[in-house]
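User: Predict the structure for this protein chain, please.
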Amino acid sequence: MIKETPANIEVLKRKANNQNSWRERLEAVNELKNYDCQQSRDILTRLAIHDVVFTVKEAAFRAVQAMGVTKNGKPIYLGKKPKGNLVDGINKKLTHVRDSLPEGYTLDEFKSAFQQQYPAAYDAYEGDKGKQFDKWLGNVIQSLPKKK
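Assistant: Here is the predicted structure, written as structure tokens:
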């Protein structure tokens, strides 16, 4: 572990704050974990505690654990992967996306509209569900309230 601030810390900060790309946040974590400086500790701690995508949260947790970071004098704790909705009002948002599309839309058209209209929500679920994302989305679309 290098005990200095990375030269590209501003780029890494932007990546770590990008709520529309869990992959960029994970990339930032993987680079920041090699640098033991206050800025990388702060960024990693925030992601370990607050990131909605469990993959990113877990990677950041492992990094701060290796650095021995504590919060208010206590070690940081990684809870279980949360169940339920990651984003408040997701069913309303998905209903809005569905209602914005013409009859007979495809799953790919729905995904594209969802990503355009709610990029942070799309990213959170796509990152959380992984390979099961399409199946999950199809099931949720089926369970949405009928159009009025």
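The chain has a mean pLDDT of 94.
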